[in-house]
Write a structure and sequence with these properties.
By secondary structure, this protein is mainly α. It has helices at 2-48, 64-74, 85-103, 120-141, 145-176, 181-187, 193-196, 198-215, 227-230, 240-265, 282-302, 310-337. It is globular and about 60 Å long.
Length: 344
Amino acid sequence: MNSISNIINWLISTEVLNMAMIALIYLTVFAVLGLFLVLLERKVAAWFQLRIGPNRVGYLGLFQTIADALKLVSKELTGTVKADKFLYNLAPYFVIVTSLMALAVFPFTKDLQAFDINIGIFFLIAISSIGVIGILLGGWSSNNKFALIGAMRSGVQTVSYELSVGLSLLTMVILTGSLQLSEIIEVQKSGWLIVQGHIPAIIAFMIYMIAGTAETNRAPFDMVEAESELGAGYHTEYSGMKFAYFFLAEFINMFIIAAIATTIFFGGWLSPFGITESLPWMGLFWFLAKTFVLVFLMMWFRWTFPRLRVDQLLTLEWKYLLPINLVNLVLMAVIVWLNLTIQI
């Protein structure tokens, strides 16, 4: 009996150790990715506006975001006297944890995936919906009317545009017949889904990118952080690392939106026309390359289009994107039913 219990204890400890190592790796990737995306945003903004951008700290300013992170770590954590302390301190962790959980289900390569669950797309949609709770809690618990208005705007915006994100992904689920991300990538060995589904897939991709940009509260849909009206929106009363959590989560969510599009529409880690199929380690390169191209596209949106008014933002979703999405969903179902998909 002692030997059996020792074996069980050893297995449990080994499993716990493996999970702890995986969690540590993903936390490291989370932090490094966030810092890199902030630097990339500044470089892209400078390029679009004919400015130099960060160029002082490190070679070509590469260590600028590390210096900013150190500054935020050292800043005092302040807040309003009448804030709900428990909810005020809890809110940033909702945003960070949901982003981290979403990263865990992405198949970066055929063998590099923390959790391969059979409801992958459903899980991503569900977990991304929880992040808005942190924003609502942060705005409400701050006891600041501007933060509250920003939080309410975020709730309305996120709930609205999640419909279009979900329906555009559901359109592609009809094409693949699976919610599991690894299976969806396997289906694309005969052609990326944006090609297999031709016109409905292209429409679904366009709607997804518009709705995904809105869901991450980025310009031109950043009404929750409209500096000209709300100061800093829902995180007005946050400082130091608590502010950094909200700021970092926005960039990680942008990467998540782009990674979902890469997985669903562009074959994930699969190379174009199978040119590097014999080199499995190249899968990570292709996944990141496709994802960062889409991230650049979202940054392009930010520095090109002017900010929408709240009424324009909601009109775009409820009067245009949602009806188009519903019609496109039916059109994709007809194409699959008649077996009109394009196979390469």
